[in-house]
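Following up on my earlier message about beta-D-fructofuranose. Here are the inputs again, as you asked, copied directly from the submission form:
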Amino acid sequence: MTNQTLREAREYEEMMEAHIAPEDRPAFHLSPRVGWMNDPNGFSYYQGEYHLFYQYHPYDSFWGPMHWGHAVSRDLLHWEYLPAALAPDMPYDKGGCFSGSAVTLSDGSHLLLYTGVRKEPQADGSFRDVQMQCIAIGDGREYEKIPENPVLTEKDLPEGGSRYDFRDPKVWLGEDGIYYCVVGNCAEDYDGQILLYSSADGIHWKYESILAKNNGRFGRMWECPDFFALDGKRVILTSPTDMLPEGFEYHNGGGTLCLIGDFDKSTKTFSEEHNQAVDYGIDFYAPQTTLTPDGRRVMIGWMQNWDTCNMRSQPKSWFGQMSLPRELSVRNGRLYQSPIREFDELRCNRVEYRNVPVNGLVRLEGVEGRQIDMELQIRPADKAKMFQKFAVRFAQDKIHHTAISFRPMESILKVDRKFSGSRRAIIHQRRSLVNHEEGELKLRVILDRLSVEVFVNDGEQVMTVTIDTPQDAKEISFFADGDVMIDVVKYDIDNSGR
Ligand code: FRU
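Thanks, got it. Here's what our run produced:
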């Protein structure tokens, strides 16, 4: 039975959705049905459809009492909105239905495991959020919170684990037929750790171990953990809050972290071999993965940044978008990402140029647009004479542009959205170290109405930023200080078909 809070949210979203013109949304990235969106939740393949839920506040374009929005897709590209799935309406989740995940139970039903938040009054009159894990079970459309809720509480924490930072369960069915989940937590000293739990039926859970600990290295709380096997390794993804910068790898604020290593079955702990950022741009957080029926590990992230998301240049009736779904692989101790292969089917109007010399400014006939996929190969015209800088500018008119620039002598790739239309004093640039052989670099630039995702060297790194640039700023230009040779293959993206 749908209770009133959920019913009201559903009526509201259905009514207000009509006020958002399709051309005011991203063309091929998921945005909220109305209002505010943050983390991807419950990303799963269930009964022939991909389900993507999301942290959702339908009533405002700012964060508020968390609901779960819901969308389904057959190809991970065309999404159809469904009525909101969860509303904060129970004593254990009145403070919000925070992030979580989904799995299919043995009886064929769809289980959502999420964090319920309860406001706890403090002696000084303030409130703190107590967090616990809760379940709703459904059929891909309607979900019922179960009477056993909450299923994981402070009683299930290891010694010192904080009940105020205990959230974002990621659930999966193990090869041994047992359900597992990882949950983000803080140890006494506000230091992130990931807890592992197991369950025979998906409903009754048992504490297993501290899978991994931060030990003061990467930020504080570890939000939205994910844990999976990939290419013979074990991978942890998590989004640490309050990061300090480290070289060009990690930046201040909320970040993304990928740990690659192995799982020690006897101690149920992760042994870490490599660490890296997941995304090197500004706007990427809280990614979640799922397995496709053909065995691909696909990740979607929230294309935003907590520190800047409330500093908008112009108000809109909705806010937040998801990244493109990205296929993951591990090669030589590194996480690689590429846009899901289904995306290639949206490419049309191919324009190709080979061996274009660039020194100064160059424009190429037919290379422009705001919904595009562009592959660029950059190399010095003469290897004996290294160029100083190469840049591509896009979403460009007289006033606006966003740029990606490459300085081979410093091995730095920079994305700069300073001129993208922002009227706020927020960060606009990110720099990353990149691998290149004597100035040879490969970029794939995917531009939608309000974002750009730059895949470097076949997915060795990705830089994602959102932009708020008028749609008629469509030009693309290339610039070099020195003698550069480029190959360009550019497609328009057309996702109007189904
Ligand atoms: C991450 C996060 C989660 C939490 C959710 C609340 O972006 O802070 O840790 O569950 O957002 O909306």
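One observation from looking it over: The pocket of beta-D-fructofuranose is lined by residues 38-39, 55, 66, 98-99, 115, 167-168, 223-224, 285-286 (CB under 6 Å). Hope that helps, and feel free to reply on this thread.
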